[in-house]
What does this fold into?
Amino acid sequence: MGNSDNFNLRVTDKEYNALKDIMYARTGVLLKPTKKPLILTRLRKRLEELNIKRFMEYVPLLEDKRSSEIEIFVNALTTNETYFFRHTKQFNFLFEKIFPEIIETRRAEGRREIKIWTAACSTGEEPYSIAIACREFFFKHPGWGVKICASDVNSDVLAFAKEGKYSERSLKEVPETMVKKYFREMDFDNKKKWQSFALSDEIKKMVDFYQHNLLKPFVQKGFDVIFLRNVMIYFDNESKQKVVSNIQNNLITGGYFFISLSESLSDVNSQLEGIRSGIYQKVK
Ligand SMILES: C[S@@+](CC[C@H](N)C(=O)[O-])C[C@H]1O[C@@H](n2cnc3c(N)ncnc32)[C@H](O)[C@@H]1O
It folds into this structure.
């Protein structure tokens, strides 16, 4: 049962401003005033657990450098919506245009390796979709090394991703033949609401997960392709500029950068040139 005092829990303007500033400084995510109800629903249970009755009492905990509460706070407030093969056309472009092109250019260089990073991977559907696409394509080209890195700031989604178990809803864009090939429907007794299909170990092993904040530089460099989809919509212009300036350094010249179909880089300065909706290429 919830603490009855928490029925009256609300977010005052002062509390909202303090929480918004902390989230922004930590992740670059701007919680607009319309997100006040979200703050309330996502954090109510946590405040109950801590027996805290007002958000003003919660703020010092978030500011305390010795406490790990900030991680729980960030995990609660990020939006993690994702599914396999989201924006399917972009995966077709990867498969039909980018992979063959890389095979061709690398032939001349004598290097048989492709490196891909999905930089806000949420619960893993995006990097695993890339892994499936790579498995399908590069299987026909033996001797190729495929390296897929996936990262997110939220430690809960990363733990979920590493388990590799998904709901039927998450698989809605996966062709039936691929579901059969790469997933196993779990026995009724082992099924959980959000986890009824287990991804094959072969695909799971292809992805390395990292906890990484996009406001900071990522240690791995030299990526041929970077996915940064459906995260910049939560940033203001300043965060967006900071993140894009950072991330383009991880991409090779000529490398491809994917954002979502509802995002654009028209309002930031970068070395990235649009080649089609949601897909950019790094120029010198
Ligand atoms: C809506 S999901 C996008 C998932 C996937 N890229 C897709 O398009 O389906 C946005 C993700 O961005 C992550 N995120 C937000 N701010 C971040 C930051 N500063 N650094 C890294 N990840 C961040 C969130 O934790 C969340 O999992």
Notes: Residues 27-29, 78-82, 86, 120, 122, 126, 152-154, 157, 213-215, 229-231, 260 surround S-adenosylmethionine (CB under 6 Å).
